[in-house]
């Protein structure tokens, strides 16, 4: 069975005109979870080695990172599958967690840890009382280790990105607690 040249020509014309894959150009700021991946794993430079946080982290705790949309989605901003999105981060100002903890353990009775973190009044008080007779030193070691006490300027500690950082989960009057089976 041979096809007529008219049918073959029509099929070739349709194959050239109709795209093989359908791509939608949309505003990628409106994508739902599962339609994008942030930060883009093909980019290896999204973590600042100095602060161990996302590059460009501001005092408001936001950083713009490059994200990757799923196949078939073209972003109207960049005309390809990548776009930028704000992600939460911890703004740091150069205070290292391990330095603060070591100062608290070894020189906490002299208040050096509090001077380092920017609390000169408490540091002077600890210096004059020998760390509140070593009881204040013990309390400060626990408070710094649990990251309850941080730098006085409101920044976060410099901790490795996948290090021992603590994320505090708080509840208020609008928090709903799901009862467990053993309650």
TrEMBL record:
Q: How does it sit in the membrane?
A: Multi-pass membrane protein
Top-level taxon in the UniProt lineage: Eukaryota
Signal peptide (from-to): 1-23
One Pfam family, please name it. TM2
InterPro entries given in the database record: TM2, TM2D1-3-like
Q: Name one GO cellular component term.
A: membrane
Q: Where in the cell is it found?
A: Membrane
Is the keyword Transmembrane assigned to this protein? yes
Q: Which residues cross the membrane?
A: 94-112, 124-145
Provide this UniProt record's keywords sorted from A to Z.
Glycoprotein, Membrane, Signal, Transmembrane, Transmembrane helix
What broad class describes the main subcellular location of this protein? Answer: membrane
Taking every annotated instance into account, which residue ranges of this chain make up the domain TM2? Answer: 96-142
Instruction: Indicate yes or no for the key word Hydrolase.
Output: no
Task: Give the family from UniProt.
Answer: Belongs to the TM2 family.
- PANTHER family per the UniProt record, alphabetical: BETA-AMYLOID BINDING PROTEIN-RELATED, TM2 DOMAIN-CONTAINING PROTEIN 1
The name of this protein is: TM2 domain containing 1
Its source organism is Culex quinquefasciatus
């Amino acid at each position: 069975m041979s096809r007529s040249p008219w049918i073959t020509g029509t099929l070739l014309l349709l194959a050239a005109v109709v795209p093989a894959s359908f791509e939608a150009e949309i505003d990628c700021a409106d994508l739902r979870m599962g339609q994008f991946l942030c930060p883009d794993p093909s980019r290896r430079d999204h973590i600042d080695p100095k602060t161990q946080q996302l590059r460009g982290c501001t005092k408001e705790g936001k950083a713009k990172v490059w994200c990757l949309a799923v196949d078939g989605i073209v972003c109207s901003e960049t005309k390809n599958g990548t776009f930028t999105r704000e992600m939460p981060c911890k703004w740091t100002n150069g205070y290292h967690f391990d330095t603060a903890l070591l100062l608290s353990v070894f020189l906490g009775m002299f208040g050096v840890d509090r001077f380092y973190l920017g609390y000169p009044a408490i540091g002077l008080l600890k210096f004059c009382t020998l760390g509140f007779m070593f009881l204040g030193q013990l309390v400060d070691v626990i408070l710094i280790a649990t990251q309850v006490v941080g730098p006085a300027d409101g920044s976060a500690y410099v901790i490795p990105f996948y290090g021992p950082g603590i994320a505090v989960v708080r509840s208020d009057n609008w928090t709903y607690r799901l009862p467990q089976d053993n309650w």
